[in-house]
Amino acid sequence: MTKEDFEKFCEQNNKYLVCYHEAIGRFEMINNALADLTGFSQEELVGRNPYDFIHPADKDYFQNRGHFPALEGRDFDEAVEYRFQKKDGDYTWFRTEITTLKNDRNHVTHLLTATQDINEIVSLRTEKEQIERLFNDTCRIARIGAWAVNLENMITTWSRMVYDIHETSYDYQPDLDTIFDFFPGDAKQMFADAVSNAIDKALPFDMILPFITAKGNTSWVRVIGKARIRYGKAISIYGVFQNMNKHMEEKNLLSEKIEEIEKEMFALGNVVMNMQLIS
Fold it and tell me: Alpha-carbon distance 165 to 180, whole Å?
């Protein structure tokens, strides 16, 4: 590739950090974007090997998923993500796509790379993972799980906590009809009516009902549900299951204490009345 060809390629791919490498990796030509982003001049990078700048923890990954497959002429399923050290010593995240250039004998002689700076994307991805971990931990502590039913194909989806609440194995295949069977007596009809009203009338529901797990254990659950509407028709229903055993135990205990206090107050009232009669 001539310098003119490289410059033309850079113009056509001006959203990327473009580099032309020897097969072993050394930079032969780079565009200004890479130099500007990393803080190095072109003269400081040309002749150097990218491995001099790749984070030590990412070098094997870059070799095995990017460089070596390229030298073997293999096709790439995805770009390679890794950390690259800038001149100030800080690392930034890159995503690189590699194109091989071959001679008449089909041997790889050079590599052409197009790289994107994905530092912001990785930061957002990390933040998202942290939020998801926090959410999962919160759900585990609060015994909350998500559920959904796709009304177009009737596929029911549970989070792991919903399986735990039902005391079923994670390979259990739930469906809308069998969900009703976990609710005893009148609770079954109450839940079925709530689901029907959500589907037919777009009415959300939030109720606490008695519950019998797959292992036969009695329980209390809070069920929240809402329909997703498209063009005036419900296409899915989704919501939350929450184990309410502790809540109901505390509620019953509070009711018992209130009842005891009321009895004591009633007894005290009788004493006062008797004293008034005596006097």
Answer: 14
pLDDT at 56 over 70: yes
Domain containing 176: what range? 143-251
CB neighbours of 183 closer than 8 A, spacing ≥ 6? 190, 191, 209, 210, 211, 212
- Is residue 39 within 8 Å of 33, Cβ to Cβ? no
Show Cβ contacts of residue 216 under 8 Å, excluding neighbours closer than 6 positions.
none
11 and 86 fall within a common domain? yes
In a domain, 261, yes or no: no
| pLDDT at residue 129, as a whole number | 73
pLDDT higher than 50, residue 261: no
* Count of structural domains within the chain: 2
Evaluate whether residue 8 is within a structural domain.
Answer: yes
What pLDDT, on a 0 to 100 scale, did the predictor assign at position 275? 47
Provide the phi-psi class of 232: left if phi over 0, else alpha when psi is between -120 and 50, else beta.
left
pLDDT in tens, 181-193: 999 999 999 999 9
* Backbone φ and ψ of 19, nearest 5°: -135, 150
Considering only CA atoms, give the Rg of the chain: 33
Neighbours of 122 (CB within 10 A): 16
Residue 273, domain member (yes or no): no
Residue carrying the six token digits 């990327």: 16
Q: Give the model's pLDDT for residue 260.
A: 54
pLDDT at position 48 is 92
Token duo for residue 113: 């790379």
Name the 3-class secondary structure at 183: coil
Residue 129 domain-assigned (yes or no): no
- Number of Cβ within 10 Å of residue 253's Cβ equals 10
CATH number of the domain where residue 206 is located: 3.30.450.20
Same domain, 19 and 112: yes
